[in-house]
Amino acid sequence: MAKKKANLYEFPHPMDNDNVIGHDTTMNAFLSAWNARDAHPIHPVWMLTGPRGIGKATLAYKIAKMVYGNVGDFFIIDMDRNIDKDGKSKPDGKSISVYTVRATIEKMQMSSMSGEWRVVLIDSVDELTVAAENAILKLLEEPPAKTLFLLVTHQLSAVLPTVRSRARVEKMRPLTMDVLRRLCARFMPDDVVDDETLRIANGSFGRIAGIKQSGGDEIYAELVALLQRGTATAAEEMSLARKIAPHPELYGILLDAIARFGLAEIYPMATHAIADINRVNLEPEIAIFRIIGEIKKCL
Question: In whole angstroms, what is the distance from residue 242 CA to residue 296 CA?
Fold first, then answer.
């Protein structure tokens, strides 16, 4: 995770990162079930859920590498391996297609019958199309013998109830401030990450990197200063909105500002406005400008 030029960060893929920090409870729960599998059959479907950037995929890969027997017994469904109906690579799509899932199922049917454990890792369920999720459901209804499914999901409520009901759900907690500091010291040693940035990261190391990469810590400080000043003009508010608009990963700092000033009453309005930016294709700067204006009115 060395820092690169232009304030970019190179993060190891979860498959290559064996350093799982802060999730001992979930790891120990799996180890307990795995080590007792001869006496008590292990649940075939484990769903790791929690906020983005806390290490769910890293933990899933660590578990997978413990379990599968041969290289051909590990099947990964993710955006990098996404394909279209013609079998062509489609890694830049916004969702994982049903064709990707079907191709994986075909590979499973052709895989070796060595008697070793096989693992299917999906990162993430949130990115599956409805058709892809239904294809997975059919597989989960009658899971093959000695096959472990590891399902990563960022928003449990978005998962089909029928899929959720077939999984052992492990809710992974956001990382503590202490763990975040340790990760920053290890993977971002050249950066100064202050306590305010750690706080607005809401337990996600991935979010810290996103905030630093886009200059979000400075933008958040500017937002707080503008709101505290109370005399900001509409032009200044729009200028700030335009700084935030190109960076969807920073929209959450508006909610952080609402929490900072104790304005819980406008939280629902702001969350809906942020969701509408993508849902109804609103101009981001207009929606953000309105949210800033509403915060200012309440101060």
Answer: 17
**Under 8 Å between Cβ of 183 and 54:** no
pTM above 0.70, yes or no: yes
Beta strands in the chain (DSSP E): 3-4, 8-9, 45-49, 74-78, 118-123, 147-153, 168-171
> Which residues make beta-bridge pairs with 1?
none
Strands 45-49, 74-78: pairing kind = unpaired
User: Is the pLDDT reported for residue 11 higher than 80?
Assistant: no
**Where are the extended beta strands (E) located within 97-214?**
118-123, 147-153, 168-171
Q: pLDDT tens digit string along 170-215?
A: 999 999 999 999 999 988 888 889 999 999 999 999 999 889 888 9
Task: Domains for the chain: give ranges and CATH numbers.
Answer: 23-171 (3.40.50.300), 177-298 (no CATH)
**How many Å apart are CA 166 and CA 185, to the nearest integer?**
39
| Tokens standing for residue 150 | 């590891």
Over residues 37-63, mean pLDDT: 96
